[in-house]
Amino acid sequence: MDTAESYRRFATIEAHGYSPCYETWCRGIADDAALLARIEALPPPKRQPNLVLGAARYVGATVSPFPEFRDWFTTNWATIREVVMTHRTQTNEAGRSAVLLPAMEPVAHEQVALIEIGAAAGLCLFPDRYSYRYGDIELDPDDGRSSVLLPCATTGPVPIPKRLPQVIFRAGIDLRPLDVRNPEDMRWLECLVWPEQHHRLSRLRDSVAIARREPPHLLAGDLLETVADLVHSAPQDVPIIVFGAAVLSYLAPEARARFIESVRKLPCTWISYEAPGVVPFDPALLPPTGEAHSRQFILARDGEPLAYAGPHGQSIDWPAN
């Protein structure tokens, strides 16, 4: 997929209905040869819309019509490029914990060790500190309602646990971990929240406040080289959960295959939450993706698909069989 098509697809499939600003900007970029030339001069992994637009907002871009944005982008390109080259897409959406919980249901009544790959600031390492709403069902931490409430629309027989797991070990891996105590790191996370999604921005800030009370243990490193050591360093007398959301798509196919092979040999349960096609599976195990699922991720446990889910944890569709 070339750069123009990538931005056009982002506008049509991902931003449409969620961020009018990003939809407008990406449609404009896709048809603008001068802006495309600048973006195409970046290394391929750095051309993705979320990263480029997040960097633009970090530099100072505000919601505006495309012609105004185009002029601003052109004027500030050198600074935007510097941010792009020194940062990564690290959407750290605590709402994804609402999708993680049903996948953890078999061990939800136990103490668990939790390890996240592509952890960013580690906000998904605190599923026991958030409150949840699945339709009429609400779950709260043992000490009462959390300042972070995660609503998740459900379809089908979603296995919602009766209580939250007790996380006794939490750790994460990222090439460039973000520190919840560092204001600039947190400003970067805020710039990765799409314009108009004020509820997600508020939730991010509340999640950061929770994480600051007990900053997670985050390792800087390649997940292929680090995950085994981290699994073996976790308590071995409790279930160990290794999970990741929208992270494996950033690996080259051969590296992705090596990770999948290695993690399945470790003494852990592996939960993935990725776009369709990222983790291979037997299509007979999940109904084929149709119009309703075209914008959703696939939730899987140990390589077996369980459900479709919204990319930010906003919904989960669990097949009856």
Automatic annotation (TrEMBL):
It comes from the Bacteria. This is DUF2332 domain-containing protein.
